[in-house]
Amino acid sequence: MFTKFMSTASLIAMIATPVFADPPHDAFDVAEDHTSFSFAPAPVDADGMPAHGNPFVTQGYIYPAGTLSGGEAGVLENGDPAYPAKVLGTWTCDGWFVGDAMRTTSGTWLISRQVFEFKDGDILISQGPEKADIGESYERPITGATGVFAENDGDVTQTLLGFTEFMGVNVRFELGDTQHSARIASEKHMSTGG
User: Fold this and answer.
1) pLDDT digits 0-9 by tens, 162-183
2) Which first-to-last residue range defines the signal peptide (predicted)?
């Protein structure tokens, strides 16, 4: 009787716990690797920085949400992650500078595609405008996804946290699908045989 009760109690605990646990990819921070930023030779402004219409590509590291809250760089001067044990995956961003490009202080400065490749194989893609306003949150559409993101066709909220001393960006992303949290936890739990 006691064994049967413990087995039932253990089963209930194993099923219930993941549903209420924080999902792994509901929100995350990105630290741009400033050594990976590349842009075309033209058009550029008088300072040699990208101007309107200049294409670019850059990469960075995905960290758990809150890792970069205090203004931490997230990337060392040589381009290595500052917190290697916390890296969840790789971020790649490509697109075009628009408007006043690198001189923009408010409003849209980029049109970009962002690809988030997580170490567990899940991929999330977002495409749209990016704002230069530090601390302002705005939504971007999710345009592609695999793994636990596969059914999420909603949006992702992006917030520019600021720039590092190496001029890399720090950004926070939060999924807009309110049911995504439960779905991620449930799918992760089921895939582990819980």
Assistant:
1) 999 998 999 999 997 544 444 5
2) 1-21
Q: DSSP class of residue 79? A: S
Distance CA 153, CA 150 (A): 8
Distance separating alpha carbons of residues 123 and 94, to the nearest angstrom: 16
Residue 62 and residue 91 in contact, taking contact as beta carbons nearer than 8 Å: yes
Q: Are strands 27-39 and 108-118 parallel, antiparallel or unpaired?
A: unpaired
Q: How do residues 21-38 score in pLDDT, each as one tens digit?
A: 345 579 999 999 999 999
* Helix, strand, coil % over all residues of the chain, rounded to 5: 20, 40, 35
Question: In angstroms, what CA-CA distances link 123 with 91, 109, 143?
Answer: 10, 25, 11
Q: Which domains does the chain have, with CATH numbers?
A: 25-191 (2.40.480.10)
Nearest to 160 by CA among 107, 115, 116: 107
Higher pLDDT, 19 or 126: 126
